[in-house]
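Example 3.2
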Amino acid sequence: MQFSRREFSKLILGAGALGLIDIDIFGQISSDSKRSMRYLATQTASGEGTWTNLKIEGKVPRDLNGDLFRTAPGQSEKFGVKLNHLFDGDAYVSAWRFNEGKVSLQTRFVPIKGRLKELDSKKMLFNEYGTLAPDPRFGSKNQPSVNIIEWRGKLLGLSEGSLPTIIDPDTFDFDGYENFGGVVPDYLTFTAHPRFDPETGDMFAFGFEKRPPGTLHIIRVDHLTGKAETLYQLPQRGFNMVHDAMLTENYFVILILPTAYDMQMVMSGKPMGEALKFAENQPAVLYAFPRDNKGGKAEPIAVELPPYIIYHYGNAYEVEPGKIRFETIAYPDKAFFEVLQHWRADVVPDFKPPRLKQITVDLSKRSVVNSTDLAESTEFPRYDLRLTGKKARYLYCADKLYDKDAALIRIDLEKQAIQKAKVGNSRTIAEPVFVPKSPEINEDRGWILAQGYDASKNENFLEILDAQTMEFTARIWAAGQHFPLGFHGNFDASK
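Structure, written as tokens:
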């Protein structure tokens, strides 16, 4: 028997009236589910707490030990105010803790002072990135909701807008802000994507002054002492949106993109997310800063690239002296900013999908040598971080995020071949994190951990795959809890 789409809908609605199925779930996974999945996978977290005895499909490897920390904007509304932008909401930290085959889940909104003040007043006081407070005079707060890293025994929650937030790794208590020995001032932004030298553990980061002319600072932080030094300062022409950077053996590499904030719009009362614009007729400029700044005498090398919106890079390495190859997710369409700003609207603009590109630049000729498209509609590229600045063969990405065909993929950069692992109907999946199986570097020996969301259950889960085969290893359910997928997280095996 065959049904038209309308007849099928009537049948489902009738079944719902009899209590045979959940009508809400039908709406979530029907043909219009793209909007619904986008909303549901970022809805306000259902709760905070610690859960043990989690339901597990498959078997969790006993030699997978440590904590997967993630952070996310944890709200879709705040005291009756709908939050517009994907980046809006108080920071919500989660930890999937592994111990010899057993797993627990711990979650909490980070209790920064601004959040506590809003809870006490029972109203939205502070502006979000894409949503103004009803009374916007209190400004905004430093939300550690973009990335979270382990640094010298503590967690740093990164907002990209200000100093890192110190978070207790056991309780998720707020422990102040990190200025790296007093070197990084509070008038500086701080990247959500610092890069780490795998040999020394030193951190390389960047930030922009939040005052004219928006000077760019390149920073190295010593892993042993925790103290920073400023390697370079480069004045800018405006206030650019730069999210990520790269590290090679000899260079810290950053692209200044033609994505900048219209400060007149901000001054007139528009939120930052709405004021972010893409100048599609202007080039991007790659700056390669020598890691050895020769006592302040070294200069960056600049190379022009085509204009793109870029949030994330994979790895980068020097193919030969003076030639750098890297992977990036490039958006060609300014409509993507509109999608982010109106994330929870019923209808969002269509936009051209991003492309995963591999680009090679020649610093001596200051030119692009090669640019190859590797995949489409992917995001959140990750690799074995022990190979930062060196040649890595494999890259892992989330494919078709918030789509009914969402999957995790492994890209063989040598063969330009793709392995895909779908996560099932009514599910979506976020950033994959590579966790090595042994201290010896072997890209085939590891697991892929990725947090997902199932609309049919309205519940989060954690997917574990074998990194070599991309075959299913285990799925851990979140005890009936749902919380936004968020953007980034990292695995810490130091304990």
